[in-house]
Amino acid sequence: MQNIRAAVASEFEQVNQLIVEQLHSDVGMVENIGHYIVDAGGKRLRPLLVLLSAAALGPCQQDHIKFAAVIEFIHTATLLHDDVVDISSLRRGRPTANAEFGNAPSVLVGDFLYTRAFQLMVELADMDILRQMADTTNTIAEGEVLQLVRAGDANTTEAQYLEVITRKTAILFAAGCYGAAVLSGCDDDRRQAMHDFGLNLGIAFQMIDDVLDYEGDPATMGKNVGDDLTEGKPTLPLIYTLEHGTAEEQTLVRKAISEKTAEDIDQVLAAVQRCGALDYTRSEAKRYHDMALANLEELQDNAARTALAAVTALSIDRDH
């Protein structure tokens, strides 16, 4: 990631500084929780995509830096809300904000970050950006509800799973890349291509996240293996196992999803590995990876485009 960031190193640092500045509040708890989750680090992948997209399309301007902060604030707000909904206790290797401060403060500070993002968008004074991000945050909220509805549903299909991850995760990737193109003054075709790049990349990224939940190292990932199982999330590895596993394996996975339990995690891990569910999910992620790369084909050849391709490769070849 350090080599990838090098293409926009100065701009990336400006985004980090802006995030810290925009966390200021007269209410102490807002700053405390905001800094707690922001300081936890993470890849900062979504704002990085905004900056790299901008640099691949032309000069990276101050509006791009501001918009990158918007994307990170919205993402961080969703993390705060997600952890409350999922009753998560560990993220990025340390206690979640809700575990540290409580559910109510986490939800309310998440609301603060959402509204701060829209305050920054107003400063951009671009109706296309505002419209896109209003639609995007609405879609993310629907995705969260849809995921909640699907939790514990062992009859979830692959198409329904794809709808959830598109709405909940990939749509923010798409919005970041699309917004960068809008602020760069690109035509509709280029805006759409960047949107589609982000969408395909986001889908590939989430699919690998779902693989890592069954074969990742907790110390590396900063979260517990099997968390999705505890939450009853019917992710693609489980859906594939329900379709292609033995009758015994299907019964095992169906029980784990419907009862939202990881008590049989070792057997579930063995099942998803034996029937090829992880390999299948990786192959699907690779298919979306390839589509994302195709969306970049008409971009000018520069360091930022090379970095975007590197991010795309990293989305499916990583351990956290």
Characterise the protein shown here.
The chain is mainly α. It has a single domain, classed as Orthogonal Bundle (Farnesyl Diphosphate Synthase). 76% of the residues lie in helices and 1% in strands. The chain contains 17 helices and two strands. It has helices at residues 2-5, 9-22, 28-38, 45-57, 62-85, 97-101, 103-124, 127-150, 158-183, 188-215, 218-221, 227-230, 236-244, 247-259, 265-274, 277-295, 303-316, and strands at 90-91, 94-95. It has a two-stranded antiparallel sheet with strand order 1-2. A hairpin with a 2-residue loop joins strand 1 (90-91) and strand 2. Helix 4 (45-57) packs antiparallel against helix 5 (62-85) and helix 5 packs antiparallel against helix 9. The radius of gyration is 19 Å and the shape is globular. It starts with a helix and ends with a helix. Its cofactor is Mg(2+). Belongs to the FPP/GGPP synthase family. Pfam families: polyprenyl_synt. GO terms for molecular function: all-trans-octaprenyl-diphosphate synthase activity; metal ion binding. It catalyses: 5 isopentenyl diphosphate + (2E,6E)-farnesyl diphosphate = all-trans-octaprenyl diphosphate + 5 diphosphate.
